[in-house]
Specification:
homodimer; 233 residues; mainly alpha; Arc Repressor Mutant, subunit A; Four Helix Bundle (Hemerythrin (Met), subunit A); 3-stranded antiparallel beta sheet; DNA-binding; Tscrpt_reg_HTH_GntR (chains A, B); WH-like_DNA-bd_sf (chains A, B); DNA binding (chains A, B); GntR family transcriptional regulator (chains A, B)
Chain lengths: 233, 233
DNA sequence: TAGGATTTGTGCGTATGTATT
DNA sequence: TAATACATACGCACAAATCCT
């Protein structure tokens, strides 16, 4: 991986072990989620520790948590491997995520403040820009960022945490399946979803936002399933 | 803590690191959940490692995951402390758990097999026995065991995992509040819940079981709130 | 089949931070 | 305020497991 001076700098000026852990954890999760580390990648504890400028011990903590999250798997004598995502195994996760997204609109819905509204508008602009120049990696990044903005609609922190966990378990499926699908079309659909949800949010109808999100999650999964079937036949 | 020969034996004959981790993780989580380690307890890595017959390194992994679960908090220079449970902070978790329990009956409900039915009946018997001789610790253990039997009603594994995570975040609140409440009454109510749910399960009405569970979760939380208010006034 | 290279798991000593006297 | 005790965080060396030649 790249040397990334600012990353090492951030780690050096991090005061507590907790902060250093979060930087390494977020960095690794992000790299996995945007396919800098595609499924099957073998990560070396030693190499990562060297890159981050720390010893193996603190790095291992981040790897262990990511293993508990289902994104990595450590095997003695082999290495730390980025897990694969399988559409069939994600069926149940998707069903649960659909319900949870509806709950975002129903459980402690928060009337969006100025900041949140601005974030939604920013995402919408980025989605429109992406529409003009579809790109898989930017699509993946937008998907992640949109998730984090969307969960701002609820004040229920446990719901946010659970949703995040499940989101990161599923989001890589798009990176895996998009090559068999029509990227431009998917980007357009996603931009439409973002626009619709942003409109709902602006109207203060958080519950509607949740329902739209749920519907798109359902349709998205159906499209994934359809393409997978078409591809195997 | 007690020497517990069989625990050490199980750890010794565990083949993989993964198995050893799970034994230590489950053991510690259980001890925290039944108040062998009450909130505020300072756990010593060294002492635990000695008790388990391992070095501090593998033990630390279990502690790190329990910290991620919200049951422990490690502070350098101080120790590893069992977190406290606060009723107000659990409000959101309870709201989410209520919804999730309903989902157990709606998402991939499983028609209970013979084994599951037998487990429910066993829990019911234990609840009746407890009714004759109320005991806080046995109550806590029954609550935990019932949870694990209940989630057998769904085939949705992610739902089970998420529910488990949230359950262990909340279940200690009863150990904290019961001393201010009427143990015998709470045991009787719990026995009633178990009987009702077992009946629903025997009829094959998993959805009804989910609704009953949801209702009791809601009422239980209301009683906790009521007693907390009464106690602070 | 055997052995060497490589990887994670483990054990332990040291650094660093906290609380108490 | 300073010193001491003690806890976790960290670094490193070795053990154990796996893979490849």
């Amino acid at each position: 991986m790249k040397p990334s001076d600012e990353l090492v700098a951030a780690l050096e000026e991090a005061g507590s072990a907790q902060e250093r852990f979060e930087i390494m954890y977020d960095t690794l999760r992000d790299r996995i989620s945007v396919s800098d580390y595609p499924p099957g990648t073998r990560l070396s504890e030693e190499a990562l520790a060297a890159e981050f400028g720390v010893s193996r011990s603190p790095l291992r903590k981040a790897l262990k948590i990511l293993e508990a999250d289902g994104l990595l798997q450590s095997v003695q004598g082999v290495g730390t491997i980025v897990t694969d995502v399988d559409l069939d195994e994600l069926t149940q996760v998707y069903q649960l995520r659909m319900e949870l997204n509806e709950l975002v609109g129903r459980l402690s819905p928060k009337h969006p403040d100025e900041t949140t509204l601005a974030l939604f508008e920013d995402i919408r602009k980025r989605a429109e820009a992406l529409r003009s120049a579809p790109d898989m990696k930017i699509f993946a990044r937008l998907n992640i960022d949109f998730f984090h903005v969307f969960v701002r609609l609820t004040d229920n922190q446990p719901l946010v945490e659970v949703s995040e966990r499940l989101f990161y378990q599923t989001c890589r499926i798009w990176l895996k399946m998009i090559p068999m699908m029509d990227l431009a079309e998917e980007v357009a659909i996603f931009a439409g979803e973002i626009a619709a949800i942003t409109d709902a949010v602006r109207l203060g109808d958080t519950e509607a936002a949740g329902h739209i999100r749920r519907a798109h999650l359902s349709m998205g999964f159906a499209r994934l399933k359809g393409h997978a079937r078409r591809h195997t036949l």
